[in-house]
Design a protein that fits this description.
L-threonylcarbamoyladenylate synthase; alpha/beta; EC 2.7.7.87; 21% strand; 206 residues; 10 strands; Sua5-like_dom
């Protein structure tokens, strides 16, 4: 049965955030809100968490997982960015974008695209997510909470708790979340390639 954490959307309770972070450090798989929609998250090196996310979403090994980072300094530890790409990403973060970039050695091989050796990264513009990342001190390994055969993610924490109680360890609820996943931009080839149009404005990358 998943623990249910009710978090204030504007002033997250430090004690509650600390409890969620402790759960993640202990290997928990959580559902949590972001500036685009709810996501599934676990600790960076959690093989069990990856397997559970794949099972819930029925993903194959070509799926790009995302490292949700607190800030640009943290993001830079996990991906290689040249100067032009740096400026483009810096101007768009924090925000509802996921960027696919070449992974550094800090990224476990199991998280990298098997052929391209890339990984997705993003910096969310969400008070609760930022508080959790600050407390955790490392990125969250994440994937959009979009269930198989459904067109839109769930938007309510209580609904996620009700439907996924048996496969999650915790649900973080800070009120209604958006329904649109991030915009995904692939910079692994040096130029911006729009992989998915989502919540982030694509005009700056066209």
């Amino acid at each position: 049965m998943a623990k249910y954490f009710d978090v204030h959307p504007d002033n997250p309770q430090p004690r509650t955030i600390a409890q969620v972070a402790d759960s993640v450090r202990s290997g928990a798989l959580i559902a949590y809100p972001t500036d685009s929609c709810y996501a599934l998250g676990c600790r960076l090196g959690s093989r069990d968490g990856i397997d559970r996310i794949r099972a819930i979403r029925r993903l194959d090994d070509r799926h790009h997982f995302t490292l949700v980072c607190q800030d640009f300094a943290q993001l830079g530890q996990f991906v290689r960015i040249d100067n032009d790409v740096f400026r483009a990403i810096k101007a768009s973060t924090p925000g509802s974008y996921t960027f696919i970039l070449p992974a550094t050695r800090e990224v476990p091989r199991m998280l990298q695209h098997p052929k391209k050796k890339t990984v997705g990264v993003r910096i969310p513009d969400h008070v609760v997510t930022q508080a959790l990342l600050r407390e955790l001190g490392e990125p969250l390994l994440s994937s959009t909470l979009l269930l198989p055969d459904e067109e839109e993610p769930m938007t309510q924490g209580w609904e996620i708790k009700d439907r996924l109680d048996h496969v999650l360890d915790a649900v973080v609820d800070s009120g209604e979340c958006g329904t649109e996943p991030t915009t995904v931009i692939d910079f692994s080839g040096g130029e911006a390639e729009i992989v998915r149009e989502g919540a982030g404005d694509i005009s700056r990358f066209e």
